[in-house]
Write a structure and sequence with these properties.
By secondary structure, the protein is of the alpha+beta class. The protein has 19 helices and 23 strands.
Length: about 675
Amino acid sequence: MTEENINYFPEFNDDCYAECEEHFTVIRRGLLELEKAIGKEKLDKALLDELFRSFHTLKGLTGMIGQRDAEMLSHVLENFLRELTKNNIQLSELVLNGFFEGVKMLENLIDSLKNNKELPNLKPLIKQLNKPNTSRTKEKTSVESKKESMGAIESKLSASDITSNLQLSSQQNAFRIIFTPTPELFDKGINVNTIRKKMEALGEIVHSAPIVPEEGRVAFEFLLKTSSSIGDLTSAFDGIARVEKHLIAKVEEDGTEPFEAQNTSSSADRTFSLTNMVRVDLTRLDELMKMIGDLVISRARLDDLLKGLEKDLPVQKYRLIQETATNFERQLRAMREGVMRVRLIPIGEIFERMQFVIRDMIKLSKKQINLQISGKDTEIDKIVVEKMLDPLLHLVRNAVSHGIEMPNERMAKGKPAEGHISLNAYTSGDSVVIELQDDGCGIDKIRILKKAVELGLIIPQDNLTDAEILEIICAQGFSTREEADMDSGRGVGMAVVKKVIQELGGYLELDTEAGMGTKFSIYLPLTLAILDALILTAGGQKFAMPQPMVAEVLMIEKDVITHIENNELIPYRNGVLPIIRLSEFFKLTDTSNGKTHVLVIGSGTKAVGIMVDKVLSLREIVVRSLADPFVQVAGVSGATELGDGKALLILDTPSLIKAVTLKKNKIYSH
């Protein structure tokens, strides 16, 4: 391994990549804002500064772990922004497109490094991005330019991390200590941790950060508050770190000499503030959620034991124990909700990525599209967000490729040349709804029907409902195209969409109208681990139904059920409600008497009823997914335990809805 590729701190890799992703979120948002400034005389300096800081930090982070290609590309993009800041080049669409390509390449490069993939070739892109440098009227040598820019960046960014308030006693001084790792020091066992321990023995570290000094190699900056003299520190760090005396009280406007403040004899009443943000590995939160799940099961077991002791204890003592158990349940629920909130992140992170996808597809397809986004602040579990990235990407590509027509086609239909795609998210109870809608041509039901009959998926019929259309286009391998294209495909892509959504415990709905457009609605749980569920019985067996999926519970007499062809209906809100018997669905013996319960799931015209023998209680359950394909059964999404050691199956509402809506067996199961 060459010197320039040595990673001195492999233990920081995960933290580095996590922070890189945070900066890419800032960069993506900033570039979309910058695109609005094409053709304008003046650019938003605050926006450019924010982008500049992110690229500079990316350069430092990737350099710290020895990823020189990513460090170099970050530096090139940083220089590109410097040109914009100085207004030496004009912001045109062509220039900005090159910058967008650079950001995508940097993101792909870091992703490749993270996942040990083949690295992309950076030379053509870097050559393209460096072209604007040749247009400057007063050209400096590359070495002079690099030294000047690195020095200015180092001083500005280092100083920006330090507040103007640092409390020092009359016996204390503040020192800036710079440690630059080298192979020689590394061989001697001297690294950043060694330096940190030395400083902790001498005083208090009030600030630390990676920086990129003039020579371009990554270094570490520390601010030490200590009663030791500069002679003591110079002696302690002789040959391994640089020591500078005095810390400024404020950052100068021009960023010059930020660490050479003048001495003051008075010790002003000053404080040093630290960030209140802590990055936590998601696996640690998973472990914490598992422990809370075990507590939920133990709490259920305790509840069952208390019910058995009620007749054996004096009323007063039983009430005290019951009150304590109730308080325990309330505290446990508060703990569960607190951990869940830690796991929640804004869904806007993936929404902003969709803007980049559509931007690229517009340029390839020559279509005119306006993307409207709402509900970016809607929060959802981090795991759900990560798993929904690819499915949402498929749906967006479909909307652009299959949905929105070319401008001349739209105008011929009396539509505006520009198509509209809206991406919306909102919270509904304990669920999150994501809606993707376009005003394009809609789904060609006749074409879908013809292809489905050819493939033997359905029998010939007059028309198809939206639910049946959705089942067909989500069938594995179904496509109306003879050849796959690069942009999309309602075959494999839609199968992936449906599978991932169902694995997450959600379901997908479709509304489409020929010539008017298509709308996909995705219903997802806020989190996956613990939820409230109705405990019910059917055919002598107990089941759990996720409470957020249930709109209401009805009690009916069995004689109100009407039979029409292959379906059963009951009166419901001045209309009828199609139902399915849960015992019949699982081929169990019907043990219900004259009265029975119906759980209404879905809403509007898509509402259906699930008939059960009895609803027993509402309980918190811990969801255990059934990952083994040999034990996966239609209508069951997982299993749980209520504390008695017996497994309880969790009902899969999408499968039950499908069983009701497709009861005429028009479509075979897949």
